[in-house]
Amino acid sequence: MRLFAPLNPPLADWHGKRVWLVGASTGIGAALARQLAARGARLALSARDRARLEALAAECDDAVVAAMDVTRPADFIRERDRLLALWGGLDLVVFNAGTYRPLRAWELTPQNVRETLEPNLLGVMDGVAAVVPGMLDQGSGSIAIVASVAGYGGLPQATVYGPSKAALINLAETLYLDLAPRGLGVFLMCPGFVATPLTEQNTFHMPALISAEQAAAEIVAGFGRGEFEIHFPKRFTRFLKVLQCLPRRLYFPLIRRATGL
């Protein structure tokens, strides 16, 4: 094993690559679609909002529109089968769909817990279950899971969102252990604060806020380097990683001071 070799097969030549973007209608997903289309990728765009997808597909050399709801496992099977019939295989599936609702501990209800966990966690696991067997059969392919730095440690207002993203980080690590020895790539993306319709809900200062286009550029660069974890912006994510090494009696007051919550 080479110590500094890429953990994944680098994805640098996108021409003709068959890419399924799940959660492509807005934000990071839409920005990533535009950047991959400009590099020659063949795209399938999924989300619930067909009108948004059709408008985006027109910008991306008439990408395939695959409208679906990630909380319905049958939708994954239906669109997977349609894409396999159309393309014969998949080179990369990006699981970016998810939701965010600021919640404090006293605001939890069974309903709002499930409204976050179903798309953020169960939807990803259902999608992985749908596409991995085919990739193993073809002997190639990669999956990419968009988590968040909110999964690194507890943060105010992320009472359900944070645990859902922490679970995705663990899932990606576990998938890598299973799939990398069998020739598949597993990428984990952990963005910091990105200006999207979801983060507009935040009422606190968001340090190192970047645009969706900047986030997509970071992801494409990370794919090209074959990184397992693509985290950004580094000036913020490295700080959060250091915080996780501190005793909790230091971590908690620092997080309260940083967020003002």
Tell me the count of domains.
1
The CATH class, by name, is Alpha Beta
The assigned CATH architecture is: 3-Layer(aba) Sandwich
Record the strand order, biggest sheet: 3-2-1-4-5-6-9
Biggest sheet architecture:
7 strands, parallel
CATH topology: Rossmann fold
Helix content: 40-55%
Radius of gyration: 18 Å
Shape: globular
**What structural category do the secondary elements indicate?**
alpha/beta
Q: What string, H for helix and E for strand, traces the elements in order?
A: EHEHEHEHEHEEEHEHH
GO molecular function, one term: oxidoreductase activity
InterPro entries: NAD(P)-bd_dom_sf (IPR036291), SDR_fam (IPR002347)
Protein name: Short-chain dehydrogenase
Keywords: Oxidoreductase
Describe the model.
The protein is of the alpha/beta class. The chain has a single domain (18-259), classed as Rossmann fold, CATH 3.40.50. It is 46% helix and 14% strand. It has eight helices and nine strands. The protein has helices spanning 27-38, 50-59, 73-87, 110-138, 161-179, 212-225, 234-243, 248-259, and strands at 18-22, 42-46, 64-65, 92-95, 142-146, 185-191, 194-195, 210-211, 229-232. The chain has a seven-stranded parallel beta sheet with strand order 3-2-1-4-5-6-9, with helices on both faces. A two-stranded parallel ribbon has the order 7-8. Helix 5 (161-179) links the parallel strand 5 (142-146) and strand 6 (185-191). Helix 1 (27-38) packs across helix 6 and helix 4 runs parallel beside helix 5. The longest helix is centred in the middle third of the chain and has 29 residues, at 110-138. It is globular, with a radius of gyration of 18 Å. It starts with 17 loop residues before the first strand and ends with a helix.
